[in-house]
Amino acid sequence: xxxxxxxxxxxxxxxxxxxxxxxxxxxxxxxxxxxxxxxxxxxxxxxxxxxxxxxxxxxxxxxxxxxxxxxxxxxxxxxxxxxxxxxxxxxxxxxxxxxxxxxxxxxxxxxxxxxxxxxxxxxxxxxxxxxxxxxxxxxxxxxx
Length: 144
What we know:
Mean pLDDT: 96
Distance between the termini: 23 Å
Low-confidence stretches: none
Strand content: under 5%
Radius of gyration: 14 Å
CATH architecture: Orthogonal Bundle
Order of helices and strands: HHHHHHHHH
């Protein structure tokens, strides 16, 4: 993990925002963004990784995060990482691939979410999700 003033603020916000959530495997949700952040190589990417699901899966918006003083490099990536459900998934992936921070965060997110060992039960839905993520990773890899 990269420890800076910025990433420590992002860690605290991530933990607070996800404190009552569990992931699909029944684990505390905050473990996921912390794992994704550990894959990042710089401060802004680590902060975006920590916050990527705060803006997606909690009541805290990107605008709220912006008002908290997080820099545009982080909030711009977070805007791209929020999936507007009216946009087809692979089109959303193509759009975010142009931003290096969003691309790095999404790539690590998809890899972690494709790890079926995190689940107690692997069903057809999980296998379909992993296949969708495989196609998304191909798009991200092509964009590099």
